[in-house]
Design a protein that fits this description.
The protein has 329 residues and is mainly α. It is built from 18 helices and no strands.
């Protein structure tokens, strides 16, 4: 039973119209369910605006990159305007990615308990309406992208390849989470290039660290659907690792932390960064230690806690960067 199944019963058709139906794995009484206009709510759910944790997971690598790279411009605080642009871009492109994913997976989603209440399989949004909505979100993302430098524009265009491939990976490999990591964390490359205007080893190292982070948290997420996925012939790292998932999580999260520490060393960030990173490490290892792989609701809760890890790393970068600046003054 999913988190949504526990917190809200599946109402009978007479109890709601399709446009107002909540999605099973969203937090009960979220702001879309409560306040969104009836006609827009299904599209907002299609873009996952009722489940913002995914936007945070897309955005944090970009903000980490911006914060790490700012000293290359002689600045020690992130550019707030640039952060805002990436924030808007994360909302638009996460929504576009989810819309595209749901278009591709609509037939599978209709057969999985956690996803059959999503707007496309439930009939709240038509296939044509989803395609139109996808184009509109991509246009918003394009407008934001064109305001950035040429290298970042090129990276944005290149990101379309892994984004397009990701929904099909679960059909052919037990490692779709790897492709998600490649696609989802492209924002780290773009955030760095938007500040520095060049490719560098710290930028690549940060990107790899973020991929391992995604491998960890999305494996936890995948345990929610492992029974349905097995019946449908779909693949995931959750199914590949099975009862041996916990050591893999420790490994993925350790590589994440090693990568983040290496970026700090390459950028000569202050020692305060490593103190903050130790708190972030505790958060990750606590996830791996406590997650109950046989409880979908607990897997979802632990997955969502990665938003807190993102904040801890961002705060650590700011503290380390400012600390190194003031110690040099």
């Amino acid at each position: 039973m999913s988190d949504g199944d526990k917190t809200r019963p599946d109402p009978a058709p007479a109890d709601f119209d399709r446009g107002s139906r909540p999605v099973a794995d969203a937090v009960a009484q979220n702001w879309v369910d409560l306040y969104a206009p009836r006609g827009l709510a299904p599209f907002m759910r299609l873009a996952r605006l009722d489940r913002p944790v995914g936007t945070w997971l897309l955005l944090w690598p970009a903000w980490w990159a911006i914060a790490f790279a700012m000293p290359l411009q002689g600045r020690y605080l992130p550019n707030l305007a640039l952060m805002a642009l990436f924030g808007l871009g994360a909302v638009a492109m996460r929504g576009a990615g989810c819309t595209y994913n749901d278009i591709v997976d609509r037939d599978f989603d209709a057969q999985v308990a956690r996803t059959r209440s999503r707007p496309l399989p439930s009939g709240a949004v038509s296939l044509r309406g989803a395609w139109v909505f996808l184009v509109l979100q991509c246009l918003v993302g394009l407008a934001i992208l064109l305001s950035l430098n040429s290298l970042t524009i090129l990276l944005g265009v290149l990101s379309l390849a892994p984004i397009a491939l990701y929904p099909f990976m679960k059909r052919v490999t037990y490692w779709p989470q790897a492709m998600l990591g490649i696609a989802f964390n492209w924002s780290a490359l773009m955030g760095w290039s938007a500040v520095a205007g060049a490719v560098s080893w710290p930028m690549v190292t940060l990107y790899l660290a973020c991929i391992f982070w995604t491998l960890g948290y999305d494996t936890i997420y995948g345990h929610q659907d492992k029974e349905d996925d097995a019946l449908l012939g779909l693949k995931s790292t959750a199914l590949k690792f099975g009862d041996k998932t916990r050591p893999w999580l420790y490994g993925f999260y350790s590589l994440t932390l090693v990568g983040l520490a290496a970026v700090g060393a390459m950028m000569q960030i202050g020692w305060v960064y490593y103190i903050g990173l130790s708190f972030a490490a505790w958060q990750l290892y606590r996830q791996a230690y406590r997650v109950d792989f046989d409880d979908p609701a607990h897997c979802l809760a632990v997955f969502r806690s990665n938003r807190d890890f993102g904040f801890l790393v961002f705060a650590s970068i700011l503290a380390g960067t400012l600390g190194s600046h003031f110690s040099a003054v």
